[in-house]
């Protein structure tokens, strides 16, 4: 497992970045999700993989007995998942609005704000 | 009041949070939201002012959230640098808040502008006061998500276009930041900045991996603070929302990224410093030059200002790259000065846009004739931005240049002085086109109805308020220089920070 995980994470990063670089909106969303997953999984792996070693202190002890799973990355992971979920939900709605407003599916049509003479109002 | 220090440290977070919640309760009742916001902003100004005074008197303050002892819980730390940041943020926040009474369309005010503004202030305060790198990431997310919604608020076509670029690139940056935090935790087993600072100063063999973690932070925070070559999202998005929003975001948010860079690269990532500082020098040089050249090509008031944000980020990185006490002090002064001046210039561009109905330099003109006071206010801000003595930009650039010459970094200082001249050129261009030139008559543009006196007063008031602050730090520069010098000393003597946080 330990050997397999880095490759999975690397693959997720690569796929995510590759899809983000596409012009299609749907692929952009997909890429952002995969990229988020890759970071989350990476954060999980940082705490080392272990099975059935819950970091719970027994009733009759003062400290947990080694070895136990590191709870910190799991806590971080939960926070990161929630934040990532919020941002992904927001970007899906944003992209839907853009699709409605511009009637296009390609990022190439969205270069108006980069042009020199932007005389749009408001 | 040493017993109140814990409360004082949390107030910059609690006040905007309460403000946001109360404003959400007053959904669609703009007047009530304005009342709540006014009280919150006044209290925030007061609280951050007192915080600065207390930190100045008692040294670095800290509090442990939930009373968990230092390396295990989340720590809030206020040293002089973070206090100055929070105070400046609340000053600009108050100014933008007043401006938005009349500078923002009522529909936007109805649908959640005020709660979002308070959430943004919460994020800025949190990012500046936290002493934990993961917590820093969380505050950055709070701040960014508020920015996302503020930029899209109203949903006009340019706003949506700007937002998609802003959201995508910042999502990537956050992912990289999180990865960097993961690497740091995997290497050290700690997230507390003070404990990390101790760990990296121990001789160990995994230095090269720590350098890699530092690179993650450079890239992600570099995207957030828009340095070369990661800045392309900024001029594509910052000018799209209404001025009240882009003034606050453009004035403040990139500087929070620079704040985090300075904090982390003075405290934690000091491994292999020659390489990192060389990298910073190169980045700062390119950022300055590219930013100012980009501005020279533009003919939209707001886009010129957006490109100048990039150019001035270069100066701040330059101070970090020279890495002496004087240069860090110069950087801190420059950040404070730049937040005030840049926000003010954006607000002035908003007033000009409101009075003339356009931001296009080719269409504008004769404003000196029509609005001489506004022209004067612009002139002071523009000269201050370019660094004409005795205005605040001069003191900041003087400190940076002196530090650079003392450290022998002649090339980068000469580049920065050249960039100053080009900045002056850009400001002169705006002056000529917007204020001095005769307005082109053959264009049949609809001239907007002139605002009534109350509206005009409420539009001018925040500009005059910020100008007063700029003039204050210009003419009482000695006080401010002393303050930022002490702040830089605190950054250089990291044991002060470490001992304060870990109670040693």
UniProtKB/TrEMBL annotation, chain A:
Pfam families: Oxidored_q2. Its main location: membrane. Keywords: Cell membrane, Membrane, Transmembrane, Transmembrane helix. It is a multi-pass membrane protein. The chain crosses the membrane at residues 6-21, 28-46, 75-95. InterPro entries: CPA3_antiporter_subunitC, NUOK/Mnh_C1-like. It comes from the Bacteria. It is found in: Cell membrane. Belongs to the CPA3 antiporters (TC 2.A.63) subunit C family. This is Na+/H+ antiporter subunit C. It comes from Pontibacter populi.
TrEMBL record, chain B:
Pfam families: Proton_antipo_M. The chain crosses the membrane at residues 6-27, 39-61, 73-99, 111-130, 136-155, 167-188, 208-233, 245-270, 276-301, 313-336, 373-395, 407-427, 459-485. Residues 132-423 form the NADH:quinone oxidoreductase/Mrp antiporter transmembrane domain. The keyword Nuclease does not apply. Its main location: membrane. This is Proton-conducting transporter membrane subunit. It is a multi-pass membrane protein. Belongs to the CPA3 antiporters (TC 2.A.63) subunit D family.
């Amino acid at each position: 497992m330990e050997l397999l995980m880095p490759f999975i994470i690397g693959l997720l990063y690569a796929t995510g970045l590759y899809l983000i670089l596409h012009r299609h909106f749907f692929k952009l969303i997909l890429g952002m999700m995969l990229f988020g997953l890759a970071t989350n999984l990476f954060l999980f792996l940082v705490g080392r993989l272990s099975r059935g070693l819950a970091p719970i202190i027994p009733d009759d002890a003062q400290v947990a007995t080694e070895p136990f799973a590191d709870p910190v990355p799991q806590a971080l992971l939960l926070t990161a998942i929630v934040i990532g979920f919020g941002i992904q939900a927001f970007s899906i709605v944003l992209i839907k609005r853009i699709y409605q407003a511009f009637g296009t599916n390609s990022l190439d049509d969205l270069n108006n704000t980069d042009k020199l003479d932007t005389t749009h109002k408001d | 009041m040493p017993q109140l220090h814990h409360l004082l440290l949390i107030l910059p977070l609690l006040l905007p949070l309460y403000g946001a919640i109360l404003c959400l309760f007053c959904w669609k009742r703009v007047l009530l939201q304005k009342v709540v916001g006014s009280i919150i902003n006044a209290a925030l100004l007061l609280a951050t002012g007192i915080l600065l005074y207390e930190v100045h008197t008692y040294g670095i303050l800290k509090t442990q959230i939930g009373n968990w002892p230092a390396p295990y819980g989340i720590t809030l730390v206020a040293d002089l640098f973070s206090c100055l940041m929070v105070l400046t943020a609340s000053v600009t926040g108050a100014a933008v808040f007043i401006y938005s009474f009349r500078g923002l369309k009522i529909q936007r005010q109805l649908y959640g502008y005020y709660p979002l503004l308070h959430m943004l202030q919460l994020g800025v305060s949190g990012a500046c006061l936290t002493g934990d790198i993961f917590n820093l990431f969380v505050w950055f997310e709070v701040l960014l998500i508020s920015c996302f919604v503020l930029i899209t608020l109203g949903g006009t076509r340019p706003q949506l276009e700007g937002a998609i670029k802003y959201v995508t690139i910042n999502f990537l940056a956050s992912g990289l930041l999180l990865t960097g935090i993961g690497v740091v935790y995997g290497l050290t087993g700690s997230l507390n900045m003070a404990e990390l600072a101790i760990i990296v100063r121990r001789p160990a063999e995994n230095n090269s991996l720590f350098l890699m973690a530092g690179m993650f932070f450079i890239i992600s925070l570099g995207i957030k603070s828009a340095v070369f070559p990661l800045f392309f999202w900024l001029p594509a998005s910052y000018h799209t929302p209404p001025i009240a929003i882009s003034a606050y975001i453009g004035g403040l948010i990139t500087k929070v990224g620079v704040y985090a860079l300075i904090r982390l690269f003075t405290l934690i990532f000091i491994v292999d410093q020659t390489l990192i500082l060389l990298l910073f020098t190169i980045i700062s040089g390119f950022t300055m030059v590219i930013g100012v050249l980009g501005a020279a090509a533009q003919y939209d008031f707001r886009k010129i200002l957006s490109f100048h944000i990039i150019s001035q980020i270069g100066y701040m990185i330059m101070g970090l790259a020279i890495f002496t006490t004087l240069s860090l002090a110069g950087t801190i002064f420059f950040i404070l000065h730049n937040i005030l001046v840049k926000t003010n210039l954006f607000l002035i561009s908003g007033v000009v846009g409101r009075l003339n109905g356009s931001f296009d330099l080719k269409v504008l003109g004769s404003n000196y004739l029509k609005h001489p006071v506004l022209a004067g206010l612009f002139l002071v801000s523009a000269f201050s931005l370019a660094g004409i003595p005795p205005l605040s930009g001069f003191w900041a650039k003087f400190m940076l240049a002196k530090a650079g010459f003392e450290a022998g970094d002649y090339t980068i200082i000469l580049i920065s002085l050249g960039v100053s001249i080009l900045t002056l050129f850009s400001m002169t261009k705006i002056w000529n086109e917007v204020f001095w030139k005769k307005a082109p008559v053959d264009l049949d543009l609809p001239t907007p109805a002139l605002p009534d006196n109350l509206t005009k007063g409420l539009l001018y008031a925040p500009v005059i308020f910020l100008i007063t602050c700029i003039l204050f730090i210009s003419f009482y520069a000695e006080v401010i220089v002393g303050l930022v010098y002490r702040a830089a000393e605190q950054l250089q003597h990291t044991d002060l920070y470490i001992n304060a946080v870990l109670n040693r």
